[in-house]
Specification:
single chain; 5 strands; globular; binds adenosine-5'-diphosphate
């Protein structure tokens, strides 16, 4: 059992006390003149999470919004490089990302995360870390056949050939969001159109203000 697996089962020691920082979340949000939220992109591999999240972040940047994108593979190069793809490691992967996203929101930023995050319970856990209304599930809804056809990283091909086990959509389940705050059906749309739809929804949900 690795150190983190052992720790997972331990509760926080009573000697560890939460300290409030001198600058509050509200102060930081006000200074940034924005509503900090998590935009939690979820969808099959190759559905377009990373591509659309990048395009959304670019639009946010152009609007003067301060954000940070946590992207699947990049996180596995660093923070989560000790994790593999067992069920337990996948849960831990998403748990850490949820915690990091929470810190970004606390710092007054818009956190975008682009991970398959196939299980409802893991997404629910990430949601529970921030305040009500601060977690927006963005379901990038692309049919499996389309993802498999795109196969940008050749992963479906490998999974079909039995070279990757537990691949989401092939031999591991993807639990689609039941009522995501934002639902993007990508088929027949260009990346920029999908990104614009996300922005429109953020405006409708009063997360973003349209300034004249
Ligand atoms: P994911 O992050 O979900 O694994 P990626 O963003 O890495 O997916 O890959 C999606 C691929 O599909 C990219 O090569 C992208 O250019 C392509 N693509 C084609 N049409 C779209 C669309 N409407 N939205 C997003 N991606 C699209």
């Amino acid at each position: 059992m690795s150190v983190y697996q052992k720790k997972q089962h331990d509760s926080v020691s009573e000697d560890i006390v939460w300290h409030n920082t001198a600058i509050s979340h509200q102060d930081r949000s006000r200074a940034n003149q924005q509503k900090p939220v998590v935009l939690w992109f979820t969808g099959l591999s190759g559905s377009g999470k990373s591509t659309i999240a990048n395009a959304v972040e670019r639009l946010l940047f152009e609007m003067g919004q301060r954000s940070y994108l946590l992207d699947g593979d990049n996180i596995r190069h660093g923070l989560n490089k000790d994790l593999g793809f067992s069920d337990q490691d996948r849960v831990e992967n998403i748990r850490r990302i949820g915690e990091v996203a929470k810190l970004f929101v606390d710092s007054g930023l818009i956190a975008l995360t682009a991970f398959i995050s196939p299980f409802v319970s893991d997404r629910q856990q990430a949601r529970s870390l921030v305040k009500e209304g601060q977690f927006l599930e963005v379901y990038i809804d692309t049919p499996l056949e389309v993802c498999e056809q795109r196969d940008p990283k050749g992963l479906y091909k490998k999974a079909r050939a039995g070279k990757i086990a537990n691949f989401t959509g092939i031999d591991s389940a993807y639990e689609a969001p039941v009522s995501p705050e934002i639902h993007i059906r990508t088929q027949g749309l260009q990346v920029e159109q999908c990104a614009k739809l996300v922005l429109d929804e953020l405006i409708k949900l009063s997360i973003l203000e349209v300034k004249d």
